[in-house]
């Protein structure tokens, strides 16, 4: 691949362009908002000048509702040797292209499983896709050259290619991406009118659950509008679980001991099913989730403190497998939770104490 055209210079399009440009590909940038394309170009993602002739690869990075029409226009004008999109839904755009009579041999639907709560070219980064799955949905019509160019793009972005059927992909992302977004927003919405004293009690749990609720609503309306059926199916199942959980909680209020027992069983059932589901989420390096122990340390909110505690962990010969920080309300300090292998806990705690850290276990 020597040349590429990225159509749509938001977070995903600009990130892909930055990665390609860093690998020596001459990238052209196009956007319905020329100022956004100029911003991406100023960040080193390529040039906002139109190509003189067909490029090797055209990457369409526009909202799902506009993917098919944008691709159809590019294909009919002979913009590139190969075309792909990076929308978060795959079945719908392909069927729309079929209805428009496009040659699908030069097209491949793809979806990089990466993103941020912020959007636009200023949020982009060449490392956005590194180590992340990048779904490819080839069919028997897909030309081998198109697939090879798509794989080259994935390699330049240092992502991990995953081949799936388009409709299977849409059902999968409904479960692991689209539904979690809505559930996060539903929980966060409860905080909008909550009493200030309650909000001040927010800990790491509510921060974890509501993190993605900060996402751009306009972007998510586009995504959900392109995949409403599978998401609605999953939410209907969640609603049934919620209904059962509400009944179980009401039973726990009963004066009848038998009803309280039934309520406790209902709550235990959903919690245990949650344990089982959580255990299937891939852990480090895609392996089965490991069981780590936590060493909790009080840390000040000053420059260099994180670097210092990681350096001290290195002196102990301990690898930090994961980390979380819980900020203390109204204080210039917080608690850092260092997740490590169980056998490393005692040595890490001792070293950190020797180095002057306040270890809380």
Automatic annotation (TrEMBL):
Residues 35-54 are annotated as: Disordered. Pathway: Amino-acid biosynthesis. It is an enzyme of class 1 (oxidoreductase). It comes from the Bacteria. GO terms for biological process: tyrosine biosynthetic process. Residues 2-289 form the Prephenate/arogenate dehydrogenase domain. Its EC number is 1.3.1.12. InterPro entries: 6-PGluconate_DH-like_C_sf (IPR008927), ACT-like_dom_sf (IPR045865), NAD(P)-bd_dom_sf (IPR036291), PDH_C (IPR046825), PDH_N (IPR046826), Preph/Arog_dehydrog (IPR050812), Prephen_DH (IPR003099). Residues 36-54 have a biased composition (Low complexity). GO terms for molecular function: NAD+ binding; prephenate dehydrogenase (NAD+) activity; prephenate dehydrogenase (NADP+) activity. Residues 1-21 form the signal peptide. PANTHER family: PREPHENATE DEHYDROGENASE, PREPHENATE DEHYDROGENASE [NADP(+)]. Belongs to the prephenate/arogenate dehydrogenase family. This is Prephenate dehydrogenase. It comes from Streptomyces morookaense (Streptoverticillium morookaense).
């Amino acid at each position: 691949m020597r040349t590429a055209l990225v159509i749509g210079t938001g977070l995903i399009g600009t990130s892909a362009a930055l990665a390609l440009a860093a690998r020596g590909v001459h990238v052209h940038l196009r956007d319905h908002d020329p100022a956004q394309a100029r911003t991406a170009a100023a960040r080193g993602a390529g040039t906002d000048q139109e190509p003189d002739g067909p490029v090797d690869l055209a990457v369409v990075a526009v909202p799902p509702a506009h993917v098919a029409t944008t691709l159809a226009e590019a294909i009919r004008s002979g913009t590139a040797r190969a075309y792909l999109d990076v929308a978060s839904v795959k079945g719908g755009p392909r069927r729309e292209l079929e209805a428009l009579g496009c040659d699908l041999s030069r097209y491949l639907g793809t979806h990089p499983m990466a993103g941020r709560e912020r959007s636009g070219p200023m949020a982009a980064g060449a490392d956005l896709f590194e180590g992340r799955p990048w779904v490819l949905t080839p069919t028997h019509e897909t030309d081998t050259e198109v697939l090879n160019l798509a794989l080259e793009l994935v390699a330049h972005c240092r992502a991990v290619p995953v081949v799936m059927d388009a409709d299977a992909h849409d059902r999968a992302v409904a479960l692991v991406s689209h539904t979690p977004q809505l559930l996060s927003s539903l929980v966060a919405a409860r905080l909008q009118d909550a009493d200030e004293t309650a909000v001040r009690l927010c800990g790491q749990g509510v921060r974890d659950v509501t993190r993605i609720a900060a996402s751009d609503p306009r972007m998510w309306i586009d995504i959900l509008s392109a995949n409403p059926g599978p998401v609605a199916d999953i939410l209907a199942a969640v609603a049934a679980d919620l209904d059962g959980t509400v009944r179980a909680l009401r039973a726990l209020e009963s004066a009848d001991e038998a009803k309280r027992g039934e309520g406790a069983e209902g709550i235990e059932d959903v919690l245990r099913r949650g344990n089982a589901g959580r255990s299937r989420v891939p852990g480090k390096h895609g392996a089965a989730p490991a069981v780590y122990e936590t060493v909790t340390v009080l840390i000040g909110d000053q420059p260099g403190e994180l670097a210092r505690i990681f350096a001290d962990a290195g002196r102990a010969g301990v690898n930090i497998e994961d980390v979380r920080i819980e900020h203390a309300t109204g204080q210039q300090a917080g608690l850092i939770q260092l997740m490590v292998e169980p056998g490393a806990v005692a040595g890490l705690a001792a070293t950190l104490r020797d180095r002057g850290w306040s270890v809380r276990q």
